[in-house]
Amino acid sequence: MAEYLIPKFHFEVSWPSAATIICSEVSGLTVDIQPIEYRDGNSNEFYPTKRPGLLKFGDVTLKRAIFQSDVAFQDWYNKVIAREDELRDVVTIILKNDKHEAVMTWTLENSWISTYTMPDMNSTANEAAIEQIKIVCENITQEFN
């Protein structure tokens, strides 16, 4: 049986306080492993030893069209601005195959909105109004389904 590539255009985004969010784009899912370099004064080598150190997680950007009845981005943004206790959330991003089955799942832990970008407006444009949020998180886990 031939195996097919998974397209990147079929995905789902959710967080517990907002259920499923319809997004047009997700970007920034990155993990950077900071190197630790060490060389002692008694070493005969001319280069340091390198070991894996702290993990840094990239800021994840979600973009979506504005719908009058869907205020999930604004609600979460308002919680962060008000410094509410529930401002941190778990964001789940699921990549799906052409049968709508989950292929990969990324979980962003202790996430909150660091940037909320409102749509730009143009009277001659013929496109949807797009809003976006930038999310920071403390951990990203990846699971193959």
Walk me through this protein's architecture.
The chain is mainly β. Helix content is 7%, strand content 49%. It has one helix at residues 72-81; strands at residues 11-15, 19-21, 25-27, 31-38, 49-57, 60-65, 89-96, 102-117, 130-136, 139-144. The strands form 2 sheets. Strands 1, 2, 3, 6, 7, 8, 9 and 10 form an 8-stranded antiparallel β-sheet that branches. The longest helix has 10 residues, at 72-81.
Radius of gyration: 20 Å
| Major sheet details | 8 strands, antiparallel
Number of helices: 1
Sum up the overall morphology in one term.
extended
- The named CATH superfamily: Hcp1-like
The H/E string reads: EEEEEEHEEEE
Helix/sheet category: mainly beta
Strand runs, count: 10
Summed up:
The protein has one helix spanning 72-81, and strands at residues 11-15, 19-21, 25-27, 31-38, 49-57, 60-65, 89-96, 102-117, 130-136, 139-144. By secondary structure, it is mainly beta. The strands form two sheets. Strands 1, 2, 3, 6, 7, 8, 9 and 10 form an eight-stranded antiparallel β-sheet that branches. A two-stranded antiparallel sheet has the order 4-5.
